[in-house]
Fold this sequence. Notes:
Strand content: 25-35%
Number of strands: 17
Amino acid sequence: MMLTIYTLFNDPNIVNAVIQRVLQTRKDTIYWQQYLDFRRTTTRVFKDYIGTVSGVMAGSINSRYGEKPIRERRNIGSGYGEIAYLGDRYQISIDRLSDLQDLIDKYNAAKPEDQKAAMRDIVDFIYDDFRQVLLAPHKRMDIVVGSLLMTGKAEVYNKDGAPEGAPKLLDIDLPFKFITPETGDKANFITYLQQQIHALAPDYGIFPKMIMSRATFVKNIIGSAEFGDKFKMQLSGNEMYLSTGLITSQLASQVFTGIGLPAIEIKEDYVKAQTGKNVQIYADDRITLLPQDKIGYMRWHTPYEATDPTPGRNYSGADGGMLISGYKDDNGRYLEYTAEWIPQISNPNLIVNFDLSTMNA
Length: 361
C-alpha cells in the first residue's frame, strides 16, 4: 500500500490504531475519572434526580391481625441536566507536515520487512497530535469536576480568562450542605470539625474521607494549634515529625481516623488552560466530605455528526462517544474532536463542604 498524508489521517484502521496507542500508553492522569464513570444518555436534556433514598425507614412490627400502616415513599428532588458541547480543532503546521512526509517517503521506499519499523516511526511522530485531541475534553472536565467538588459550582465561558459579564456556556450550581466556620473557630479547628461531623452523622452518615488542597492541609490541619497535642497523643514517639514539620497526609490521617474523623486526601493537581497558564483544579480554603469515591456519572450523548457526517471527512470514535476527524482546507490540515458530555453528581445533597474563607480571612 502506498501511504500518503491523506490516507494516514483518513484511513479508519490507521487512525484507530493510533488512538488505541495513545489510550494505552499515555501518562497523563484524567482526574475526573476517580469520581465519575461514563454513562450514556439518549437525549441532550435529561431528568436528573437530586439525591437518592439513602436512609430507608425501618419497617413496622404489627400485631398478628393488625392492619399494615401506609407509608409514603420518601421524596427525591429532581431537576434537568443538559449536555455540554465540547470541540476544538488543532492546525498541524507546514513544517511538521513536511517532516511527516519525509517519514512517509521512507515507509514507501522501505522493503516489506522494514515497513513495520517505518510505520512505528510515523505513529510515534503523530502520537502527540492525537494525544492533544483525545485529552482536551478530559482536561476541561477535570477543571469542571474539580470546581464542582470543592465549591459546588462550575462556570465555563467561551474562552478561559473571559471578561466579567461575558456569557457563560456552562453554569452549574449544586445543593451541597455548606458550612462556614467563623474566625473564632480557627484556634480549635480540629475540635470544631469533630463536633460538626458528629452532628451531621444522623442525617448524612459516616464520611470515609475528606479532600482538600495541600495549602489548606498545611494552613488548617497541621497548622492548627491543637494538632500537635492530638498528634503526640495518637502517635507517641513521633515528636520528631512534629518538631521538623515533616508530617505527611498519611500520618495526619492516622491521627484523624484515631479520633473519629475521616481520612485526609490531599489534592494538588493542575491543568493548562487556554491562556497557557496552569489552573489549580481543587480550590484552597475548602474541605469537601464525600459519601463515597464514585459520586455520579459523566453523561454522554452521541454527537450529531455521527449520524450526519460532514462530506469528505472520516470519523473515528473514542470513549464517551467522542469523534475524531482530520481534514484539509486551503489554510492547512487539521485534527478536531467533538464530544457531548456533562458531569452528573448523583447525590449532591449528601456532600458536605466547609468554606474556610471567612475563618482564614
